[in-house]
Amino acid sequence: MCCTGLRNLLQGLSFSAKFCSKHNPLQTMCSYSKIGPKKCLILDCSKSPCTHRTAPPGSILPCRFFSCKEGTKVPSKRKQNTSIVASGLLHKKLLKSEQKNWNNISPTYKAMTKRIKEKLEELHSMYTLNSGSPRMRFGENVYFEENGCIFLAKADDGEGNAEILFSIEDLGFSDAFIQRVRISPDQRYIAISLKSENSEEATCIIMKLCNLPVVEKVIPSVFSFEWAANDVLYYTTQKNLKCQNVFMTTFTYQKHTKLVYTEQDARFFVDLYCTKDRRFLTINSNSKTTSEVWLVDCRCPFESPSLVQARTTGVIYHIEHRKDQLYILTTYGEPAEYKAILTDNYIHRMNLDTYCTSNRNIASSGKENWQLVYALEKKTKLVDFEMFSDDSIMFLKNTGHLYLSVISFVSHSIQTIKLPTWACEFELESHPEHTASTCYFQLSSPVHPPKRFAYSFKENNLIEQAVQEVPIITNCHTTRLLAESKDATSVPITVFHNKNSKELHRRPLLVHVYGAYGIDLNMSFKEEKLMLIEEGWILAYCHVRGGGEQGLSWHRDGCQHNKLKGLHDLRACIRLLHQLGFSQPNHTALAAASAGGVLAGALCNTDPALIRAMVLQAPFIDVLNTMMKTHLPLTIEEQEEWGNPLEDEKCMKYIKSYCPYQNIKPQCYPSVFITAYENDERIPLTGILQYVQKLRKAALDHASRTSKKGNWIPNIILDVQANGSHCDSSWEHSLNE
Prior knowledge:
It is found in: Cytoplasm, Cytosol. By secondary structure, this protein is of the alpha+beta class. The protein contains 13 helices and 35 strands.
């Protein structure tokens, strides 16, 4: 298929995409990593990418839909149709009203907007010019992606002589962005997914790399894909924010496609990953708390997948392979945190007379044969894990500090190194060859641009890599605090402020919170955070329970019937900051996105005097009505996070006690700025429109009932973005936002 044919086919599929730059890489949708969300590494050779967001659709960020109040009976079809029409008219009326309000208010900030935009553009150009896209070397070839193109260069020739293998511009889709790339083991094929920021689904294009690259196949609605062999591709399809089917397709001789696995449980989401040595392709079926892995032997990719360990409620595990032994990261056993496990004497159970590993051999790797290799210390988060031929490396987080632990399979030793104190996030670079002797990664923080480091297994030391000159951030101070929550639990806080700032109690403070799904607060570098530091702001990140900053138990202590603990943590954090002289309530703003809107919105109801303003991005603000609607695509799997109010009256009352929408009342609220997206499939606009209306009415009711002189009426503003979908927007759109 030529490029023109591909263009016509994609147009026939009504595929539309918007360009997304590196400004917000954590929001590009990537598959599950082995442990949790990491940034996306574009180029790889049949290896899972890293994210930040996140995680697969439906596995981390909730789909949200505003529905009728609890207790409402299911209406008849005629009444239902009438209700839908009425709801649509109300939606249009509310949207028109909010757009009019926005058009009246936004000119007030025109001068400020112009100044901020110019500053952010300056910072963006300063730091993006010095951060190139990942380079992947396979033998003599180097692959890399830039500006919507995939390039191939010879390692010895330099990138000046690189040839273009693929270009979005040439296909007539300049508004698309490349989400994921997989190169076949023999480098004859390349699979590329294109995605729109207005949609959760991607389209996969498979090209044959010959003198004139040609398109072999186009697959719509694809989420993850991996090469099991030179000409055999496995992929998952996505529908209604769910991935439950795995297909195999071939490209030589008898070309065919067949279904190889289907997940029947709506709570589980399926993705694919290849072990580092490319011996196995793993089919991973994960819920929020439980997982199951099936293996495809890459030497015999047409054989049926083999189950490693049947799913056990509460047990999560992930598979790696090295020298005929399976290595497993699992929560099995006490405490229920991640541990490194080696399958018992796996090599001696292999049938060496056959080419493929038999199902019996894989089955013998069940949990009854697992042997402990490494266990985490208390309150330690396993952020990521990478396997090499003679070593494995683990990236850990403990009370805000980053560490790496190196396990040597040769000397049977473990070495732990504390990473620089300013570092808050890391991005593991892709290492396609498991025999590599060096592990490369980048460290960053909200106010420190990424800096490249390397760990040498031969030298057993950490090396800071020399890169192009990047401005060094020297005027920012990083402080780590512990706040005592209501039940005496210590809650970590990370604080940034300008070293030259005087009288910190007079400085404005921006507090960040998330606290859901076991996901850490996003603390990667952002130009706008650095700008705020330069303007004298204080930034605080509250690592409350419900998030994952201190391991899986930290998440368990803040979900379902423990959700209020996250609210208590947030309240304690803000109070401690004020007590220590970091700003004061009248100069404090609270920021949250997606499910972080639950705790932020709850605090706004219970302790409005603690903050002067609240900024929400695509917020989840009506837990109760959402969890009452099981027909929504993600409600069932979300029960592991929020509970099931339909079957548990106690759960219903508990959710109602903290749900932001349900607890709005006439009082003096802080000012509120909300960004929402018309194309958000997870948090549709109607619910946010009604939340804004209810909040504004409550604030005005309070003002009308009080006759205090100089009574303050908060600004409650909603900005509806026509582009973008659920916190996933391009640099240009984020800049305007």
